[in-house]
Amino acid sequence: MPSKHLVAGSSPAGRAQTLCAAERACDLHGGPSVHSAKPVGLLDALSPFRPRIGGSKQCGEYVLGNLQVVVDAASSEMDPKCVGGRGVTDLLDSLGAGQSPHVHPSTVGPAGVAGELAPDGPFENARQAHNAVMRTVGVEEEFLLVDEAQRKVRPLAGRLFASLDAPGTDQVASAEFKDEQAEIASAPWENMSGLRDDLVVRRRRAADAAEQVGARLAAVGTCPTPVTPTGSSDPRYQRITAEYGLLARTHLTCGTHVHVSIDSREEGIEVLNRIRPWLSVLTALSANSPFWNDEDSGYASYRTIMCSRWPTAGPVEMFADPADYDRRVRTLIATEVIADAGMVYFDARLSSRFPTVEVRVADACSDVDNSVLAAALSRALVETAARDARDGVPPISTDVTMLRGAAWRAARSGLSGDLIDVRAGRAVAAWSLVDALFDHVDRSLVEHGDAGRTERLLNGLRATGTGADRQRAIHARRGRTQDVLDDVVERTGKG
Question: Which of 70, 92, 143, 193 could link 86 by a cystine bridge, Cβ 3.0 to 4.6 Å?
Answer without folding.
Answer: 193
